[in-house]
Each structure stands twice: as structure tokens, then as C-alpha cells.
Amino acid sequence: MMVYFVVASLLGLTSRIEFSFLNFAIMAVGVCLAIANFKRYKHDRMPYLQGFGTGIITAAVSSLAFGFFFIGVTALRPDIMDQIHARDLFGLELSALIAFLAILLQGAMVGVIISLVAMQYFKSPDHKPIEGIE
Question: Model pTM greater than 0.85?
Fold first, then answer.
């Protein structure tokens, strides 16, 4: 996400909000790779909640790193905040701190949703929760 943001800012695409959705695709790939790697580590016997938590933690850590990176970039180049203000989606009161918190919130929400969907594919074949209820 950091490399993509640098490339987008060099190309002047930070003012176009629709290009920021590629961050979600990058995060989806990262979360799925983390869950798949954890499943290989557990020899295909990964409990559902451990895989789900792995995806959420991966998304949270990547969002946190990207948020701090964003604060660093805005400290070095304050004109990037002006480019983001160009659309006036968040009002004139958008600061680097509010953007950091928005990045964390979006990352956590997207991480939960992606992990939930990805775990339907990555769950262990012996995971049958309905059979034990009788």
C-alpha cells in the first residue's frame, strides 16, 4: 500500500478517490496470503477463529503501518493533504491525524470482512460445527 501511494502521489492521482480502492485489493491479497501461510504452518488443521484472527491482525498491522507512513509523508509533503482536500469529501478540517484514524478504521473494517469471506475458503475440511450440536 505504501509503494502504491508513492506511485499514485508521483502521478498526481491522490486527489481521485476512486484510485484509493486499490488499497483494499492489496489488503485482500495480503490477508489471504497470511491466512494461507498460517494454514500451511498448521498443516491444514487451522481452527476457524485462529485463521479469522490472523486475517484481522494482518489487516490491522498493515493499516497501522500505512497510517504512520501517511503521517510521515504528509509531514514531508504537506501539499498532499491539499490534493486530498480537492474533493472536499471530509471537509476542510481533514488533518493528518484524522486521516490516520480513518485509515485505521477502514483497514480494520475491510480486514474483518475479507477475513470472514476468506475463511469460508481456508477453513479446515473437518470443520463441521453443526454435527456436534445433537
Answer: no
